[in-house]
Amino acid sequence: MDNTGYCGESFNSLQSGTSDEDMVEIAGATLDFSSTDDVPPLDRDYGSGGSYGVSNGPNGIPKLMDLLDEPVPGVGTYEDFNTIDWVREKSKDRDRHREIATKSKESTLALMKSISDAFSGWLLMLLVGLMAGALAGGIDISAHWMTDLKEGVCLNGFWFNHEHCCWNSNETTFQERDKCPNWKSWAELIVGTNDGPFAYIMNYLMYVCWALLFSFLAVSLVRAFAPYACGSGIPEIKTILSGFIIRGYLGKWTLMIKTITLVLAVSSGLSLGKEGPLVHVACCCGNILCHLFTKYRRNEAKRREVLSAAAAVGVSVAFGAPIGGVLFSLEEVSYYFPLKTLWRSFFAALVAAFTLRSINPFGNSRLVLFYVEFHSPWHLLELIPFILLGIFGGIWGAFFIRANIAWCRRRKTTRLGHYPVLEVLVVTAVTALLAFPNSYTRMSTSELISELFNDCGLLDSSQLCNYANVSVTKSSSDALPDRPAGHDVYTAMWQLSLALIFKMLITVVTFGMKVPSGLFIPSMAVGAIAGRLLGVGMEQLAYYHHDWAIFRGWCSPGADCITPGLYAMVGAAACLGGVTRMTVSLVVIMFELTGGLEYIVPLMAATMTSKWVADALGREGIYEAHIRLNGYPFLESKEEFSHKTLAMDVMRPRRSDPPLSVITQDGMSVEEVESLIAETSYSGFPVVVSHESQRLVGFVQRRDLVISIENARQRQEGVVSASRIFFTEYTPPQPPNSPPPLKLRGIMDLSPFTVTDHTAMDIVVDIFRKLGLRQCLVTHNGRLLGIITKKDILKHMAQMANRDPDSILFN
């Protein structure tokens, strides 16, 4: 979408026309109009002074004092839904660093400021880790309590969840550890008993009502206060980290509403998780805390380094996996990830994990609800079922992406999208009505994964562990031998099969609704159910047919050969990998969840297989698919450009288009430039020597031009519509009685990136990816021919891939 925001608008309207959120909380772009560091490097030959005046330059030529010798507030910032200029931002930071280094040699105070500047990055990481860890702990505790609230309440104190309520009871038996007199179901409170059909219907009704209430509050708060708080947030975070600006996406309101509604959405029982949205929450913390430090507040590229570290913090607190979080940020979301950011991400993730561990939200000294430890080794032949789980994960991932994108596209293009509240309530009602009868869908998804990962022991009372008793001598290890499945296990298998179908279908329509919704936990639940089913099947096969060739030699009677919980874990990794296409970071996250080094090979085999199978069925992961669906300008580094086109095939103007809109360096008046701005919607204009020669001088941003002209009208006496605008170093003598000219050389980029018209497009695409360019000018023998923007490249790539080029909405 071309930028139409500043046609004929005054600088004052830019300031006053936005709310506080729009002014401050921008995903990278802070319209801090008191800023003085947003000004490009100035002509250092000139003296300072903001008023118009003339002095004698070399050879007696009058030299106009540059209006921009004094910084103009707003110059160097960016419009909403636009891409930052990475080259300019990095250049600004180098200039700032060079100035600090030079001054540090002059005085002790300057040296202390230099040390403070160097330390500020680490201090910021500490604050981000503390804030994100504390919020994650609060979200975990609140979601656990509100999930249990759907089933009953604690008489000792309504703020206790079921588990904490029964901890304090002296009348709880080991066999019925979930039942205690202090915890009352809604049926017990309302009708006085928990037995009989009427009590069941009452509990059913209360479960559905609470679910509807929580989801209604979540979608209403999102719609009323922070529309950007919906969804996972990871597709937008990826786009923001690539340099795109979404104003308000990482703001105070978004953080506040996302934190509250995330608890409500998870507690409602919808098939979603909190892990993806926690990345968004952590990035909001990073963006808000950036405002405490000048070098991050005023530089978009530096801010994105902080946001990359914040993404690592989000995964660290979501899974209790600091190293996995750093690798997730590096592999999945970050666009620019220098070594310094790697160290700082590691430190921030460590602080966040330590903070969450101090809060101890689950009361088990673990950072996640489904932490598990396995004790039995795996056998080489088990790689076959592990690879089968990888194939299932890849097929499920490809199916889910296609189905979910088709549903989301339907939501965008039909009337369904006009009723977000109704959609959420209908999906919640269907989920609650179908989930309650099945104990495995009624419990929270995190508890379900915990139960599926569990390695059955003697003290387990779960249906999944209710094997037939066989008199065996218990080995010295903690593992129990394989045993025949009892009636409860077979019942659990049927319930899990129904839960698998239910989760696979309901997650497709849930992800993308107007509530915070993560995809990690639902995907892991689908894989964990499939893995547990396969694991129990393998276990029973080994028990009854231990004399088969595949089991002979390693699975003797009375031995613990198969661990169904391990299969659940491998299945969870396979399905999550199939949906997101994560590999290295996913294996490390799962390894940190289990603490078992020996299970890395099964995890690697399943994860790699799921990625291969999913890539064979569709190249995009779920986040890339949603980025494309929303039309964000994201140049995917994993996507190869293999077409033999040239820069002249992509550049604008095309042969049928009007000529390129340019500004001459010394021949246009203020009125002519303002007219050009009003008649076009381009983000910037090339500056040429003259219309006849078309020799390139530089490039000027539309926003900088608007602000500078408006500022000159206010601060410089005599500037009128007839005043000439000069981008030259020296101003030629003006006719007598002519209005004072306006010199804007300081806002011009004197070294814009250029390519020739015969440059291969694969090289141009590489330049845009690696340098983070917004636009590139096309020349022939030094004459300007046209311009290529990021949007032009994305449209061209879409056209080459037989997709709709008009789906790219932003530049």
UniProtKB/TrEMBL annotation:
<dbReference type="GO" id="GO:0005886">
    <property type="term" value="C:plasma membrane"/>
</dbReference>
<keyword id="KW-1133">Transmembrane helix</keyword>
<dbReference type="GO" id="GO:0015297">
    <property type="term" value="F:antiporter activity"/>
</dbReference>
<dbReference type="GO" id="GO:0005794">
    <property type="term" value="C:Golgi apparatus"/>
</dbReference>
<feature type="transmembrane region" description="Helical">
    <location>
        <begin position="417"/>
        <end position="436"/>
    </location>
</feature>
<feature type="transmembrane region" description="Helical">
    <location>
        <begin position="306"/>
        <end position="330"/>
    </location>
</feature>
<dbReference type="GO" id="GO:0005524">
    <property type="term" value="F:ATP binding"/>
</dbReference>
<keyword id="KW-0868">Chloride</keyword>
<dbReference type="InterPro" id="IPR046342">
    <property type="entry name" value="CBS_dom_sf"/>
</dbReference>
<dbReference type="InterPro" id="IPR014743">
    <property type="entry name" value="Cl-channel_core"/>
</dbReference>
<feature type="transmembrane region" description="Helical">
    <location>
        <begin position="204"/>
        <end position="229"/>
    </location>
</feature>
<feature type="transmembrane region" description="Helical">
    <location>
        <begin position="519"/>
        <end position="538"/>
    </location>
</feature>
<dbReference type="Pfam" id="PF00571">
    <property type="entry name" value="CBS"/>
</dbReference>
<dbReference type="Pfam" id="PF00654">
    <property type="entry name" value="Voltage_CLC"/>
</dbReference>
<feature type="transmembrane region" description="Helical">
    <location>
        <begin position="250"/>
        <end position="272"/>
    </location>
</feature>
<keyword id="KW-0129">CBS domain</keyword>
<dbReference type="GO" id="GO:0008021">
    <property type="term" value="C:synaptic vesicle"/>
</dbReference>
<feature type="domain" description="CBS">
    <location>
        <begin position="651"/>
        <end position="717"/>
    </location>
</feature>
<protein>
    <recommendedName>
        <fullName>Chloride channel protein</fullName>
    </recommendedName>
</protein>
<feature type="domain" description="CBS">
    <location>
        <begin position="748"/>
        <end position="805"/>
    </location>
</feature>
<dbReference type="InterPro" id="IPR000644">
    <property type="entry name" value="CBS_dom"/>
</dbReference>
<keyword id="KW-0812">Transmembrane</keyword>
<feature type="transmembrane region" description="Helical">
    <location>
        <begin position="492"/>
        <end position="513"/>
    </location>
</feature>
<dbReference type="GO" id="GO:0005247">
    <property type="term" value="F:voltage-gated chloride channel activity"/>
</dbReference>
<keyword id="KW-0967">Endosome</keyword>
<keyword id="KW-0067">ATP-binding</keyword>
<keyword id="KW-0406">Ion transport</keyword>
<keyword id="KW-0677">Repeat</keyword>
<dbReference type="GO" id="GO:0005769">
    <property type="term" value="C:early endosome"/>
</dbReference>
<feature type="transmembrane region" description="Helical">
    <location>
        <begin position="380"/>
        <end position="405"/>
    </location>
</feature>
<comment type="similarity">
    <text>Belongs to the chloride channel (TC 2.A.49) family.</text>
</comment>
<dbReference type="GO" id="GO:0010008">
    <property type="term" value="C:endosome membrane"/>
</dbReference>
<keyword id="KW-0547">Nucleotide-binding</keyword>
<feature type="transmembrane region" description="Helical">
    <location>
        <begin position="119"/>
        <end position="139"/>
    </location>
</feature>
<keyword id="KW-0472">Membrane</keyword>
<feature type="transmembrane region" description="Helical">
    <location>
        <begin position="278"/>
        <end position="294"/>
    </location>
</feature>
<dbReference type="InterPro" id="IPR001807">
    <property type="entry name" value="ClC"/>
</dbReference>
<keyword id="KW-0050">Antiport</keyword>
<keyword id="KW-0813">Transport</keyword>
